[in-house]
Amino acid sequence: MDSQNRPAKVKLSGAVMTHPRRLEEARLLAAADPHRRIEVVVDPEPEGRPTALRVAPLSWDCVAPDATHHLVLQDDVELADGFFAYVEQVAAAAGDEAVAFYAGWETRNGGVARLAALTGAPWAYALQEHVPCYALLLPADVARGYARFQAEDEPGWPYDVVVQRYLNARGVPVRFCTPSLVQHMDMPSLAGNAYHGFRQATLFADRAVEPTTHDSVRFDVVPFYQYGLARCAVRTGAGWEYVETERHLRRTGLLDACLAALASAVPHDLPEQVRRAVWVTGFAIGAVTAAAPEADPQVAAAAMATLGPGGLCEDYGVDDLLALSHPVRDLALAALDEGRKAHRPDGPAAGSAPRARTVVTGGADAFGRQLAGLLGDLDHRAEYLAASQANPSADLAAHPLAALVHLGRPTDGPEALRYALRAAEAAGAERLLYAGSAAVYRGSGERTLAEGDLTGPPGDPVALAWWQEEELCRAWGERTGIPVQVLRLADPVGPHAARGSASVDWVHLAWTRQPLALDPRGVHQVLDYRDMAAAIDAVLTAEPSEPVFNVASATFGEEELAGLVAGVSRRTPWETGSADRTQRWCMTTDLITAGPGWSASESVTEGLRDLAQWYACDVHGGDDLPA
Hints:
By secondary structure, the chain is α/β, with parallel strands linked by helices.
């Protein structure tokens, strides 16, 4: 915090944003401020579909002329005793930062709050996620700019995502306090978010206590349990990566110890999937916090008690969550202790010897880096070289190169592929794997296609562009004698998936509350991003055989896939229609199953959820999608 940016004296104004149905609750919240600085701002169109976006600009615009900070509350919260005095204190210390007073147990930031509680940190900076807006404090000048930003932003996005985009654009960091001083009340959702389940703070204090410090911490690894899945946010040189917790533990050499401890743990009457996910999450939290003094047992118990409800609130009702909370807490505490003991301060343990070097080129940088990381998890010594990297041929030639995996993208033009091929030849590559696209079959009509069914240049212009890249690789292989194999990949789903596929386009429409126009006869094949890495691994670890393999995780009817997309992002209506790109053909994948022995093993629903979360939290909050 920059002391030069701290106001000499804090002057607070604020608002409670509400709907007429909750007017009484909003008035009680406003009246809790002893200085009567909080206005009640009512939805100007209460007859419309309830949405925070309609009342948010008015709530942020009513900043008092002499205010230094502005606080906006939502109407379904409970405040800790002494809340408003605490807000004034924080405003004086936090300077030009945004301050949230709540972190939900179902969010990534709930994982941050849990780490903060266990390490005794009263303040932590938020991850790149929708901003917790139940109680948010902004510097007055930042508050005054929100309404204009929302008016110019694409309509329909969730309010907390728009706030995230706005604060990113202004360069304003978001911190939150631990424990939370605001609790979400169990009221019916007016905005249609009830399907997210019962939501509460990761840790709530009913009385505000002056913090020992206003310094805010950041964590490089944040384990969290969300949507029934154990995940980790891991800081990398390029930003944040969100991976399965077991994958992270494997990378750090701790997975074997984690699973061995699970096998000998005291049995708990929990579904096996829940038991394993809770355990690996608690174990990873223990490893992350091992360097800190052991937390007070009561604090640890309270922090870990909300782990299960946060991860399961979409699938279980309130009564079931309460019934699970104690056994989940006890299991998580045992795992926490094992993780603290197993932590290796000297870094990753030695694993199996890595295979010969594999280089990934082409495609979008973020997708390529992600793929290289996934191949590394499969024991490849893999790295990604961006097309813009200086002299990649020298980098390719620096060490023996077993394989070049090139992510095709015809929109880059043929010279990009030729450049990669020249570099691979100069580096002595032993084989080339061209990751192409099922779009090469576009225009094939209504049929099922095996690899050998495409015998010449297709007529569709998009299909032809992919075919020409394949032909360029084949001609290069014939000239150099280097084995070339082509993977025709279904539309990838997962983080960093490119625009233009039905899944990405529908995720966008669902998040922005736009209806989907669907063709009931449409067919879609998708490929989970982890299955994609496994397919490449299977082909590279087998002797070169077939020149072409079709690869897809699953096949869906158009309405079925749209339903999955809406389920992992936002419920959205659809209507019967027909798009020009409607696909009615599909690929067989028998050849790659019979030869290299690959078959889909990942949950497509998880891949779609990863896509939806990445798109809302990371892309719409910051970078644009790759073309």
